[in-house]
Amino acid sequence: MGTSLQSCPDCRMDDWLGRENCSEILTKSRPDMIQRIHETFLEAGADCIETNTFGANLLVGAEFDDEVVAMTRELNREGVEIARAACDRHATPDRPRFVLGSMGPGTKLVSLGQTEWDLMLRSYEEQAEGLLDGGVDAFLIETCQDLLQVRCAVNACIKALEARGRDPFDVPIMVSITIETTGTMLLGSDIASAVNALRMLPIASLGLNCATGPVEMTSHVEYLCRHWDRFVSVVPNAGLPVLVDGEASYPLQPRPFAEAMRRFVEDRGVNLVGGCCGTTPEHIAALVDLVGDRPAPKREIVPLEPGCSSLYGFTEFQQDNSFLIVAERTNANGSRKFKRLLDAEDWDALVSMGREELRGGSHLLDVCVDFVGRDGARDMAEVASRYATSLNAPIMIDSTEAPTIEAGLKRLGGKCVVNSINLEDGERRLDEICPLLKAHGAACVALTIDEDPQAGMAKTADRKLEIAARIHGLFTEKWGLDESDLLFDPLTFTIATGVENDRGLGHETLEGIRLIAERFPKCGILLGLSNISFGLRAPVRAVLNSVFLDHARARGLTAAIVHASKILPRTKIDEEKWAAAEWLIFDRRGADRPEGMPEDFDPLLHFIGLFPEDGETEERVSMESLTVPERLQRHIIDGEDDGLAETLDEALVDLAPLEIINDHLLAGMKIVGELFGDGRMQLPFVLQSAEVMKKAVARLEPLMDKVEGDVGRGSIVLATVSGDVHDIGKNLVDIILTNNGYTVHNIGIKQSVEQIVAAWRETKADSIGMSGLLVKSVTVMERNLRAFNELGISVPVILGGAALTRFHAEKRLRDIYEGPLYYGKDAFDGLRVCDRISNDALDELDGEITERLEKRKAAEATVAAAREATRERGDADTLVAARPLVPVAELPAAPFFGSRLVEEVPIDEVFAYVNRTALYRGQWGLRKGSMDADEYAAYVAAHADPVLERLKAECRAEPILAPKVVYGWWPANGDGDDLVVFD
Predict the structure, then answer these.
(1) Residue 712: its pLDDT value, please?
(2) Is the Cβ–Cβ distance between 99 and 137 less than 8 Å?
(3) Alpha-carbon 893 to chain mean position
(4) Which residue from 856, 729, 859, 850 is spatially nearest to 799, judged by alpha carbons?
(5) Three-class SS of residue 160?
(6) Which of 124, 348, 369, 614 could form a disulfide with 379 if both were Cys (CB 3.0 to 4.6 A apart)?
(7) What pLDDT score does 569 carry?
(8) How many Cα atoms occupy the beta-carbon half-sphere of 904 within 13 Å?
(9) How far apart are CA 762 and CA 764, in angstroms?
(10) Which residues lie across from 518 on neighbouring strands?
């Protein structure tokens, strides 16, 4: 339509109503001319014609005036009616003619931030409503340059249809992208990325149009016809344009144009063919003559491998010689550095951190911005928009909050992975997230968690499979999503606690992987790998993680969230450590212990023992040389129960049972807490100490006289808040407090505020402890505190959990709660708070909090002052010291002062500075790939140099580029590292 209008002799300047280049306004001023152009193509034999609505949307209209914006819907409706009138004149019962509603790309690229998703969605929705008002047969989203724009336009069409109770089966949605001469879309997306990103959207056809002639489209058409399982359309220009007498001319004549198109139909099975810029009714007539009504041969589709994509490239979920490596450090909950940069809003540094992860070998970035006290949706928008255009890697959007996930999806043009869904609250999470997956064509991670109040997080292989099967059914049957876009996370738990119930969790996870892989071979399986070794030192973790990964891959694991550089190949782990890690993973104890090992063999202690602490030279002091009180403490500190009974019996000769507990055993636990807090004792040994403490107390309790009173030092109600199933940290608090003489009422996971209050009233506990790992749990804690206020509860509250920060607890949450509130960083920090509550020493804690907040306030003031000073640099009044002047023989004189503009810069002088390497590789995407230097040089000479020379010629002939230079001289002076420029 565009070139037809430009060449139409009947088109006058006043037809544009003062809005030159707004072709859609001709629908109002010259409907007769628009209909006549339609009819020339119908007379040539076209089956479908496009409406004159290419730019008839709100965003494009706003570039003209408010009147054009106001008539957007009307322009689309009338555009369809004109085309329909033309079709009705030429349609017969045997050969109907169809109206395609043209929806162009507009003038703003949403991936580059030139507009926002919501604005573009509303713009296209208004256009789609107008096209439907006119009775369009199909939508044609064409000349697409940005995959995010395509997805936005498709969603707008769906919304407009749903508002009328219709769907894309009633009015098909056709999409046609534009591949430039560089071999990619304007933003750099290749054809594989486009197919992958759009595959799950309800598109009736996908094709190519504009930018080039048919020859240049050949390889892209071949890819489409092999991998796209629906209709394929090809609508090229009449060749590459050339300048003739200063105007663009399309050189490909009708017959050779039609010959090329015939080959697409006969050899490739293309379903829809037509003409774009430069094609005339004669081109269409030649096309009808050669192609006619012949059906396209059936194509043999090679299904696209399941995967995800960035704007620039496609990544398969199933890696040939590896596993899909998902970077774990672009996560506010897993990386202090990422969290710090996010809090500082250092967006450029966050991009650099993403690049660093990719250089380390990651295929995919797991991006989590959930951070207490911040706006997750805003942060995700900032990070995702930058990652989308700066990083050549797909993104896994990791959040518990649907608005945060949606904010990411609205800014990432590739096919994303959403992390995650589960059945923790029944089907609610799927009902919330699956519509987003459908709208954006995203894949998803599913955690094997359900609503079971006691065993929600599946720990046995059978439970993992049971929950996976249930999610699979809902994902595919209820929501109609493709199972190849589902990656199961069967959950990894630490096997480094030494707790009996945790010993077999590694083996259960491996068996769960095997069962899920066998049952659902088209689904992926992913793990957060490092959880398996939580609590151990870094060198120990690296080996255990690597061995566990090896076994997981052998059973069907396809992906892992992991720090890629910390995974060691088997060749770099000595056989003794490898075997010891396997004994730990498979819990080789008792009758199953390795040959030659003693009956009390503990694979955890054996494995850790192979990694001595740095500088560990000090020999353990023998028990025999210690006094009885020292031996009591040493049993606790070493977690050693051998000889415990004998030591207790000796102590009972001179000490009362309660004295032994309070003065000696608890003193040992205090030292354990200090060692753990300083990083000098690992979690398994802490839990061993707790077990020895438990055994000692159990032995002493029957010997206590009733008159001595209760051994307890206080009591606490402990709960994981509503909506959160994570309890490892809470249970550790339970163990530590219990073994330090406290009575702990651990009421479990997903506890509502009503349940917490009921437990507190029933037990009359001294305090309430609330925990949660998820960021949303902090919001739940806040709601619970407000509820406590309303109920008149002012008991001391201790808050903890991975998502909560000390500052948020001590500043915001303390301001909300009307009673005492404290933050427990870990189990021993919680013990310290409980001790202060027990000893009625809360003033001490309050004083520490006040001091911390005042220091932070002072630090923030200092930083703010420094920033203000930085902004004011250059003001001569603020300069404090000048660099000594170095005398010179003669000071040069400035030829003039002020600035001057040079407007006529010869364009060829600018061309001399073009960096061809940066242009060809960086901007045009001409990668060397597997070519050697000579092959690449020949390729560039044949394909890139001619294009550059053509562009240069166009710039010489037309004022496309008008380089100018501003330069000047000003009086100035150096001052330290600053330059002071005088008025």
Answers:
(1) 63
(2) yes
(3) 57
(4) 729
(5) helix
(6) 369
(7) 80
(8) 0
(9) 6
(10) none
Residue found under tokens 């596993």 = 323
Residue-by-residue DSSP string for 104-122: ---S--GGGTSS-HHHHHH
Residues 6 or more apart in contact with residue 273 via CB below 8 angstroms? 233, 234, 235, 261, 264, 265, 287, 291
Q: Which domains does the chain have, with CATH numbers?
A: 2-291 (3.20.20.330), 420-491 (no CATH), 624-706 (1.10.1240.10), 714-856 (3.40.50.280), 904-963 (no CATH)
SS (H, E, C) 961-980: CCCCEEEEECCEEEECCEEE
Q: How many CA atoms lie within 13 A of 696 on its CB side?
A: 40
- C-alpha 589/C-alpha 67 separation (Å) is 81
404-424 b/e (C-beta count within 10 Å ≥ 16 → b): bbbbbbbbbbbbbbbbbbbbb
Helix axes 628-638 and 666-677, enclosed angle (nearest 10): 40
H or E segment to which residue 429 belongs:
helix 428-440
Alpha-carbon torsion, ordered 649, 654, 658, 659, to 10 deg:
-120
Extended strands (E) in 211-274 = 231-235, 242-244, 247-249, 272-273
- CA–chain centroid gap for 549, Å, is 23
**What is the distance between the alpha carbons of residues 140 and 121, in angstroms, rounded to a whole number?**
16
Both tokens of 650, joined, read 């000796």
Q: How does strand 742-746 pair with strand 395-398?
A: unpaired
> Which pLDDT value is given to residue 618?
37
Name the phi and psi angles at 264, rounded to 5: -60, -40
CA distance 269 to 228: 11
Number of Cβ within 10 Å of residue 88's Cβ equals: 11
User: Can you give the pLDDT at residue 948?
Assistant: 86
Provide the token pair at 343.
């809090």
Mark the ranges of the chain whose per-residue pLDDT is less than 50.
615-620, 706-711, 874-885
- What distance lies between CA 410 and its chain's CA centroid? 12
Residue reference for tokens 């802490």? 686
Helices (H) and strands (E) in the chain, counts: 38, 28
pLDDT the model gives residue 1: 64
**Per residue in 462-520, pLDDT tens?**
999 999 999 999 999 999 999 999 999 999 999 988 888 899 999 999 999 999 999 99
d(CA 454, CA 138): 52
Q: What's the chain's Rg over C-alpha atoms?
A: 35
Residues 148-179 as b/e (b if ≥16 CB within 10 A, e otherwise) read bbbbbbbbbbbbbbeeeeeebeebbbbbbbbb
The span from the CA of 562 to the CA of 778, in Å, is 26
Amino acid at 278: G
Are the C-beta atoms of 375 and 405 separated by less than 8 Å? no
* Other beta carbons within 10 Å of 383: 28
Whole-number Å distance between alpha carbons of 72 and 24? 9
Helix/strand/coil for 72 = helix
Q: Which two tokens stand for residue 384?
A: 């995702």
Which pLDDT value is given to residue 929? 62
Class of residue 745 by CB neighbours under 10 A (exposed 0-12, middle 13-18, buried 19+): middle
Please tell me the predicted confidence (pLDDT) of residue 193: 93
443 sits in which H/E element: strand 443-447
Query: What global pTM score does this model have?
Result: 0.74
- 141 φ, ψ (degrees, to nearest 5): -90, 105
Q: Considering only CA atoms, which of 496, 505, 590 is closest in space to residue 543?
A: 496
Q: Which of 116, 49, 122, 123 is nearest to 88 (CA)?
A: 49
The rounded distance, in Å, linking the Cα atoms of 295 and 277 is 25
Predicted pLDDT at 235 = 97
The rounded distance, in Å, linking the Cα atoms of 129 and 472 is 36
